[in-house]
Amino acid sequence: MSILVAANFDADEWAAWWPALQAALPGEHLIRGRSEAPAEAIDVALVANPPLGALQGLPRLALIQSLWAGVDKLLADATVPAEVPLARMVDPAMNDAMAETALWAVLGLHRGTFAYAAQQRDRVWRQHPQRRADEIHVAVLGLGQMGRTAAQRLARNGYRVTGWSTRAMAVVEGITTAAGDAALAEVLASAHIVVNLLPLTPATRGIFGASTFAAMPAGASLVNLARGAHVVDTDLLAALDSGHLQHAVLDVFHSEPLPVEHPFWSHPNITVLPHVAAQTDPRSAAVIAARNVQALRQGQPLADRVDRRRGY
Amino acid sequence: MSILVAANFDADEWAAWWPALQAALPGEHLIRGRSEAPAEAIDVALVANPPLGALQGLPRLALIQSLWAGVDKLLADATVPAEVPLARMVDPAMNDAMAETALWAVLGLHRGTFAYAAQQRDRVWRQHPQRRADEIHVAVLGLGQMGRTAAQRLARNGYRVTGWSTRAMAVVEGITTAAGDAALAEVLASAHIVVNLLPLTPATRGIFGASTFAAMPAGASLVNLARGAHVVDTDLLAALDSGHLQHAVLDVFHSEPLPVEHPFWSHPNITVLPHVAAQTDPRSAAVIAARNVQALRQGQPLADRVDRRRGY
Predict the structure, then answer these.
(1) In total, how many domains does chain A have?
(2) Structure confidence by residue, pLDDT tens digits, B36-76
(3) Number of Cβ atoms within 10 Å of the Cβ of A6
(4) Is the residue at A306 inside a domain?
(5) Which residue ranges of chain A lie beneath pLDDT 50?
(6) Are residues A202 and A287 both part of a single domain?
(7) pLDDT tens profile B119-178
(8) Residues 84 to 143 of A: which have CB under 8 A from any B CB?
(9) Of the candidates A59, A24, A63, the residue with the CA atom closest to the CA atom of residue A44
(10) Which residues of B touch A103 (CB under 8 A)?
(11) Do B113 and A273 touch (CB under 8 A)?
(12) pTM above 0.80, yes or no
């Protein structure tokens, strides 16, 4: 059988991924194009933003393994066969990277470094009062692998952390948790910083709109590391421009790359990152993808299967 | 007896410090000016950049308690009586603040956020390859209270940390340590990021000059959180302009506020912070100062006495 790698990688990305996948899948026939093997010989697709229709007409396809953590685009692609098991990438190295980005953003908001960067541009020397980490309340929305890892990392660095998830869930060591729509307003009301790590689903799309911003206290900040479509851009701009929100750190956008004319680029209270909060590391991700291929071949349960109805 | 608070505080700082000191020293007679008590009634001076000569002619002065951690300016002030015991401020809250600033700077250098900030100004969407924290070697120079706290915080967040001190010293849990001039070149040679938390002494003044930068690998970065006089400014500019060093995060400068015409302000590879890496928190520092006042009054040993010969 053959394994199709269907990805919109550029040359540099192929140069990193191809040897990593070959090393992790010795003895497997890896192909990069449909023409390299008959359709009926392909039983696994490793995908990263696959070209539209790339997975159609593969009668023996038995596993679609995403190389990215988020699968919302795959679920929205009607050409991705819905009956084939789909697995997300859950890589501890990516969880750590996400936790680092969340911590960097929270430290920067807590310690005023975004304001100091603006001052540097104007050559202004002005010190702002400083609070202790345990005086900063951080709400982490989304308690999947990444949300839990980020929340615990923040707590271990001294912040008061509350984790919130859409559904009730188990205790996460070191942090307070809350769940469900009714609890959200209360969690937001006391948050100095809100870190978004929710999956993108019909229920969470546009969750960061005017009413959510109004539920956050004056001077609060948003760190969006999940999906651009979680945010209503015009509402965010209004909340920042009114002074109600202080700052937003955004790694993800409705359209990526962020269009050059988008107002986020030049807004003084928005920090734009080019979707780098947790880049997949081919070295570790290839090994994790290979484990699921092996599970498939040995008839064992697949890890990190997506519940298509739930959306993640 | 009276306690003289000799400080160059502005109105906001007095508004924070005065009630904190009064709360921490109940029953003590606190004064802000020499005219408020006879010279022979003053036995303690709490100082923060005291006006020149403020401590002269106090025959019963028995304790000079600094409200700042660094005492290099006090030791350089010939009007500060050399025979009176001098104590530094060692405040766990300041150690934590310093560790947070060090961690913020290291995360930013590791994750490329200073480069992404420059890209945002130019509306450039470009992702850079990402390394794991355990692939980043951080050298922390100076293993006093702040250096140790910062080094351990970095190690707990996954970085490979080597701590270096001028003199041989005890093991610091969680990090590799080295000491003495001979070991410095080796520590620098493998460092991706050097964090300076050395005390300023004749031996460390100008330590970050051309030869130290040459000992660091190409692409390394400097985080100076100690004193501006540790750095030879022209050598730092040369090392950055040649591309040998990648970036510098500077919280301290030869002259503060950093003069408006100084080239650091506008250098694309320098991040300027206005001496805020670890601001003293009046709430906790007043309590720590009060403990030493109490020790003096009760004839007990003073904490955190400065060794004037050693310089810290």
Answers:
(1) 2
(2) 999 999 999 999 999 999 999 999 999 999 999 889 999 99
(3) 23
(4) no
(5) none
(6) no
(7) 999 999 999 988 999 999 999 999 999 999 999 999 999 999 999 999 877 688 989 999
(8) 93, 96-97, 100-101, 103-104, 107-108, 110-113, 116-117, 119-120, 123, 125-130, 132-133
(9) A63
(10) 103, 107, 157
(11) yes
(12) yes
- Output the pLDDT for position A296: 96
Q: Indicate whether B288 and B223 sit together in one domain.
A: no
Q: What is the ipTM of this complex?
A: 0.91
Size of interface A-B (CB pairs under 8 A): 111
For residue B307, being part of any structural domain is answered with no
Q: Which of these, A73, A34, A74, lies nearest to A57 by C-alpha position?
A: A34
Alpha carbon separation from A86 to A8, A236, A294 (Å, rounded): 18, 34, 15
Contacts of B68 by beta carbon, 8 Å cutoff, 6+ apart: B48, B49, B89, B280
Note whether residue A106 is domain-resident.
Answer: yes
Same domain, B30 and B63: yes
Instruction: Kindly report the nearest CA distance between residue B293 and chain A, in angstroms.
Output: 25
Confirm whether B308 is domain-assigned. Answer: no
B-chain residue closest to A102, CA distance = B107
B250-273 per-position pLDDT tens digit: 999 999 999 999 999 999 999 999
**Among the partner residues A129, A158, A279, nearest to B127 by beta-carbon distance:** A279
| Residues A247 and A143 both lie in one domain | yes
User: Are A274 and B96 a contacting pair at CB < 8 A?
Assistant: no
Taking Cα atoms as reference points, which of A111, A199, A16 lies closest to residue B271? A111
Nearest CA in chain B to A268: B121
Residue B305 pLDDT more than 80? yes
Same domain flag for A104 and A202? yes
Side-chain-side CA neighbours of A100 within 13 Å: the count stands at 30
B13–chain A Cβ distance below 8 A for any pair: no
Phi/psi at A165 (5° precision): -130, 160
Give the structural domain span for A219. Answer: 92-272
Question: Are A268 and A154 in the same domain?
Answer: yes
Kindly determine whether residue A117 and residue B271, on different chains, have CB atoms separated by under 8 Å.
yes
Whichever domain contains A178, its CATH number is: 3.40.50.720
The reply to whether A14 touches chain B by the CB within 8 Å rule is: no
The CA distance from A160 to A154, in Å, is 8
Is residue B132 part of the annotated active site? The answer reads no
Instruction: Indicate whether A189 and A118 sit together in one domain.
Output: yes
B174 shares its domain with B83: no
